[in-house]
Amino acid sequence: MRKLLNTLYITSPDAYLSRDGENIVVLIENKEKFRIPVHNIESIVAFGYYGASPALMSLCTERNVSLSFLSEGGRFLARISGPVRGNVLLRKRQYQLADDKKTCLELSRLFIAAKISNSRNILQRALRDHANEKNASELTEAVSILENRQKQVLKAEDPDTVRGIEGEAAATYFSVFNHLIVSQNDEFYMNGRTRRPPRDKVNALLSFMYTLLANEVQSALETVGLDPYVGFLHTLRPGRPGLALDLMEELRSYLADRMVLTLINRRQVKAEGFITRAETGIIMDDSTRKEVITAWQKRKQEEIQHPYLQETIPVGLIPYAQALLFARYIRGDIDNYPVFLFK
Fold first, then answer.
1. Whole-angstrom distance, CA of residue 253 vs CA of residue 78
2. What is the DSSP string of 284-299?
3. Exposed, middle or buried: residue 290 (CB in 10 Å: 0-12, 13-18, 19+)?
4. Residue 18 carries which DSSP code?
5. Confidence class of residue 2 from pLDDT cuts 50, 70 and 90?
6. Which of 161, 151, 140 lies closest to 117, judged by CA?
């Protein structure tokens, strides 16, 4: 298992990235604000438009440090990485399997069944920890529906049916998501899942966390030598990292949704830290974005026992562990891909 290194998040929209030897330097108004040796980090995520010097981009590609640019609201803009590395035979096999309809269907079932199972576990935990007479019946009903949807998706006979069941399960899950918010619920609530743009503070947090998670999964796939753009559930579309989105499905509730609920229920974010803009919907201000990123970095350092590997690993290495297991499946080292399921 690889070592968990840091991700450098640049949250100031007017920051410019440059290189000084083997160091990454952050400049604001041509003044140095921060520097870090390149060997201490594995990726850079910049929220803003000022960009980076060609010398810095060269350093990142030489040292296998990914460099991603996102809008202020967290929308993906661009990603820079070095030459393709990894076993060419692994990618060739990936492409062959991605053209096989039976394999695509089998994997799609697994991805969505795991997503539904983990979403159900989030609701079951809420029932155990803080359900009351008012919401217990709705949560119990949602859990039952998700259990049925999980069984249905494992028997689905075509990709469209898988996607249809996934949509129904997501609608059920988010219909009771407000019951999981037990603090600041006058200010933080959602009316269904809205993405582009997010129409409320909860959706703004969810979209932001999903963007961070997608970056982590894509980096993990590239690290193990897989092509993150060739998926099995998410079909080929120019510029869309299909395989990263595939593996992300099983991780959304455990890594992103729980993080959002923790931030709200522990009052780590406040309602006044959000801004409404016509073109981008609701976004976080700079201080709130920094608070979310700091909490995310701390969460990644926590340890769990991986349910399949039976090893204690940092939470931040879960995407890498799943990418590694998926590569083993592609190579034929294991018969089935062991999705990530938490209790």
1. 25
2. E-HHHHHHHHHHHHHH
3. middle
4. E
5. low
6. 151
pLDDT of residue 73: 62
What CATH architecture applies to the domain 6-80? Ribosomal Protein L15; Chain: K; domain 2 (3.100)
- 146-161 as b/e: b if 16+ CB within 10 A: beebbebbeebeebeb
Query: How much is the pLDDT for 155?
Result: 94
User: What's the CATH code, domain 88-331?
Assistant: 1.20.120.920
Question: pLDDT digits over 292-315, tens only?
Answer: 999 998 898 899 999 998 888 889
Picking from 168, 130, 161, the residue whose alpha carbon sits closest to that of residue 146 is: 168
Tokens of 337: 């891909």
Q: What is the residue type of 163?
A: R
> Is this prediction's pTM over 0.90?
no
Q: Which sequence spans correspond to the domains of the chain?
A: 6-80, 88-331
∠ CA 340-82-247, nearest 5°, is 15
CB distance 27 to 18 below 8 Å: yes
Alpha helices in 47-198 (DSSP H): 54-62, 88-98, 101-130, 133-153, 159-175
pLDDT for 264 equals: 95
* 127, 182 contact by CB (below 8 A): no
Q: β-strand 281-284 against 274-277: which pairing, if any?
A: antiparallel
Phi, psi angle pair for 231, to nearest 5°: -105, -175
> What letter does residue 7 receive in the DSSP assignment?
E
Q: What is the pLDDT of residues 163-200, one digit of tens each?
A: 999 999 999 999 999 999 988 888 888 888 877 778 88
- What's the N-to-C CA distance of the chain in angstroms? 23
- Integer Cα distance of 135 and 81 in angstroms: 47
